[in-house]
Amino acid sequence: MAVTTAQLVDWLERYAGVIAEQKQYLTGLDAAIGDGDHGINMDRGFQTVLVKIEPVKNKDAGTLLKTTGMALVGSVGGAGGPLYGTFFLRAGAALDGKSDVSREDLVSALEAGLKGVVERGKANLKDKTMVDALTPAIARAKARVQEGASIGEALSSAAEAAETGMKGTIPLKALKGRASYLGDRSIGHQDPGATSSYYMLRTLSEALAEVPQGAKTATS
Amino acid sequence: MAVTTAQLVDWLERYAGVIAEQKQYLTGLDAAIGDGDHGINMDRGFQTVLVKIEPVKNKDAGTLLKTTGMALVGSVGGAGGPLYGTFFLRAGAALDGKSDVSREDLVSALEAGLKGVVERGKANLKDKTMVDALTPAIARAKARVQEGASIGEALSSAAEAAETGMKGTIPLKALKGRASYLGDRSIGHQDPGATSSYYMLRTLSEALAEVPQGAKTATS
Amino acid sequence: MADVTTATRLKKLINSPESEVKDALAGMAAAHADLIRVEYDPNVIIRKDPPKKGKVGLVSGGGSGHEPMHGGYVGLGMLDAACPGAVFTSPTPDQMARATKAVDGGAGVLHVVKNYTGDIMNFEMAAELARGEGAKVNAVITNDDVAVQDSLYTAGRRGVGVTVLLEKVVGGAAEAGYDLEKATALAKKVNANGRSMGMALTSCIVPAAGKVTFEIADDEMELGIGIHGEPGRERTKLRAADEIAEILTSTVVKDLPYKRGDEVIAFVNGMGGTPLIELYVVANAVNRYLQKEGIKPARWLVGSYITSLEMAGCSVTLLKLDAETTKFWDAPVHTPALRWGV
Amino acid sequence: MADVTTATRLKKLINSPESEVKDALAGMAAAHADLIRVEYDPNVIIRKDPPKKGKVGLVSGGGSGHEPMHGGYVGLGMLDAACPGAVFTSPTPDQMARATKAVDGGAGVLHVVKNYTGDIMNFEMAAELARGEGAKVNAVITNDDVAVQDSLYTAGRRGVGVTVLLEKVVGGAAEAGYDLEKATALAKKVNANGRSMGMALTSCIVPAAGKVTFEIADDEMELGIGIHGEPGRERTKLRAADEIAEILTSTVVKDLPYKRGDEVIAFVNGMGGTPLIELYVVANAVNRYLQKEGIKPARWLVGSYITSLEMAGCSVTLLKLDAETTKFWDAPVHTPALRWGV
Ligand SMILES: Nc1ncnc2c1ncn2[C@@H]1O[C@H](COP(=O)(O)OP(=O)(O)O)[C@@H](O)[C@H]1O
Ligand SMILES: Nc1ncnc2c1ncn2[C@@H]1O[C@H](COP(=O)(O)OP(=O)(O)O)[C@@H](O)[C@H]1O
Ligand SMILES: [Mg+2]
Ligand SMILES: [Mg+2]
Ligand SMILES: [Mg+2]
Ligand SMILES: [Mg+2]
After folding, report:
1. CATH entry, B3-208, from 3.40.30.10, 1.10.357.10, 1.25.40.340, 3.40.190.80
2. Calculated CA dihedral for residues C91, C93, C98, C104, nearest 10 degrees
3. How far is the CA of B35 from the centre of ligand 4 (A)?
4. Does C158 lie at the interface with A, CB-CB under 8 angstroms?
């Protein structure tokens, strides 16, 4: 019923895999409206995460995610490092000491992570950043859980919302981050950070898809 | 009968024209075994010559050629500047004060010019330099004049010898000038300076082709 | 990243994209052993002669690939430490925290941060860490790039050429005994009085990316380029150096604006792949423009001081001088890349 | 030459190939008005503060496109005058004659000439002119490029990196009062103790030619390149910076040869289009090689000091030190491109 640390490890490994796979793609998105390093940075970061979480895979979920956050802060650099680093640090803090993570716990942790991202980066919705993927996704996860959906279902729904949010960055003019230097020339391009955030939600949903579900509820 | 200053002006103008026309070609030859500037340098020099000889076109042949030499020394630079500059300075000195230049005078002047080039550059025959075109050409002119040929005939013959000398540089390994840095890699390329020297003889022969000829002799 | 190094070797003097920054740091350590020492993991370049107790520490940092900035400015009268990130990527907070700790002589530390979201956030996290350990830390943000529209609602202007001049001026003041508040105020003034704009003829290649950051045609240039090859204001046809210099200088002049009678430092910077002869051609045109406008270039800096790997292009920076700024610009400096008076 | 400028504008910050040298000279004059003055037609860069009576004058020159060499080395403790030719083309005798006259303080003038046929002949003609007017003129020929086979029957080796070091050392000695014979002897010693070798990743483009001097494939480099883009020893596949540095350094070391226990100046030079970060990568490998061989790099110079327009690549120069050479290397110098001790 509850999400285990092992599943979260699975998430991080899946996410690291997708980042490695999509490194050139993410970097290409960033080259168009930034400085062409987002994929490189995230890949360096998640390769570090894979090493750094090795000793804490059997610890509680909080320790796992805080270790992930520290690894990202110390290896990614750029905008992605503090933002994703803060996301995992805050999410980890919310799960401090927990080894069995309830649906509600997980959603709260994601919310705490997002709050950290917004505090750190001060981006508003529609500024064409990762916030545009994270915000609707986490709101959707919360709503679905409140409706009684399984965590797998809720996250699958959240990943869809993240994808929509990601695509929604295309017509936007960037107001934060490096892309904002481009002004109107940023319009028409998909934001790289929103893209990597979508991958984060998608891999989380994949990792939790096989979660044995507790109370079955109507899916709508 | 005698060569006039006007004919020598005609020579210089023809030569300047050919250099301008062949600038890229000469530069290309120099790029292969040198530093790719021979055409550019010679063209800069002869454009300067055209300006500098303007006030001395009516003076004696010595003044005309010395002015040409000074213009070259002061504008060409590189190896070509001192070599061609010395050639014209010495040839001009040999014709000091002369307005009507006999066949013998002209040949002596060319010999003096060549002697200057060899003193300045210390190249031996077969070192793959302009000397390989000039030496046989001027020797041939002298021989033909001694045989009694008209100056036009003698120079036409000299131009042929220059062309042969120029082509003869192709199989040589350069021992002087920038091409010598290449060692064996210089083999198989035609020397740019020998090429510009061939043009010098050819345009001289063209300028003198219409010289009213004195003693007619057998051409062989 | 092995795909890049093994498949096609880049036309760069490197061993691998992964090792480039550390290899270069080791080269710096060898070549400038009299001035700096280098620590690895986290990577920090620190002044060799420990600053005297009571001196404000000056720390900067940013992505690598902009050499000599910032590591080349560590030494007497300029920075006390610099934190090199991966190529074009802000360093991480552990680097700045270590640097801050190493150079804190008790009088506090000033962080010189170029205005990029990543740099700001990483320096902020570092400052939080350092303050957590009891250090006094201030930060000054440089944002002198007039190519970017300024606005309260965006990330604002990029920090570029003024950063170098600021590090020199404030470094001189710190060496002369300015306290943290005075040094911070001077830094803000210098930033407020400086403006820059750049352009590129060619793109750079981030080694880890393995290909050009942007495509540009043989007859085009990018006006208002950023120092990471970020696209600029406008892609236009190539023009003569005089016209380019006039576009850059006039845009800079009108922005502050610099006025008739002002004295300035005129800084003509090469982007890394542009030879010095061309920078002097640009300097000539900048000088002519300033003379025409009655602005006096009282000091000059011409060379490649804040670069973008092998990008060809240049930038023009002006910094308005007053007595305080001039005094500390002229003060002795002894670093790998700038040296005078000693 | 209008064909080049109008048809296709080059990716260079210039106004036209014809005006590049003069425009750059005017830029230098503006930016370094405290150090130099520039005369035109003939083009000469002359020290601003007239050398004291009785000081040996030091004059060098060569084609333009190698900046900062030579004009950037005019000033206190280095050259008294420099003569810039057209790009990559030796200057003309009237330039050197004028320079010689301008800096002759009665103690004679030393010409520093790089071993190229054109440079030698033009300097010889200039020396003849100057001697004709009563000046005492000596010449020293630099020929340190180990890439070229040395021989009595050929033009011999090219003068490259050692020229810069020689100008500094002999400039220091002249400033300290060496007479013409002693300065000449020191210059010959420095040349004899120095060796260099270079390589290129890309070609340069001579503006008047409008196209690359040599074609080179994406996976190739030229070993033993000359500073005018003259082909070198060998065209090979690209290698890692460490291997390239080892090839250059070992060839240089074996040529003199430099021996265990020798102290040297290690000079890692950029060809113009190579960014500083890569030169430090090379410096690191040079340092490792020297340490392994027991040769001590007692002094370093890392940067683009003798360039070939925008060519990418580097060269390695070693100069064996003795007390005299070290003393004058360390002596104060104040020029546009090198400055210390003042
Ligand atoms: N202020 C911000 N708040 C939230 N996300 C941001 C902010 N600034 C930038 N980003 C995100 O960071 C991404 C770029 O990350 P990255 O390329 O790693 O950093 P950098 O821009 O420093 O090179 C952008 O695509 C955007 O989604
Ligand atoms: N020592 C020499 N004696 C005679 N001719 C020489 C000598 N050295 C070079 N040359 C000639 O000069 C030509 C090159 O001239 P140019 O390209 O103008 O000068 P640079 O080599 O200085 O660029 C060569 O092709 C060769 O014919
Ligand atoms: Mg980026
Ligand atoms: Mg040539
Ligand atoms: Mg970045
Ligand atoms: Mg030449």
Report:
1. 1.25.40.340
2. 100
3. 5
4. yes
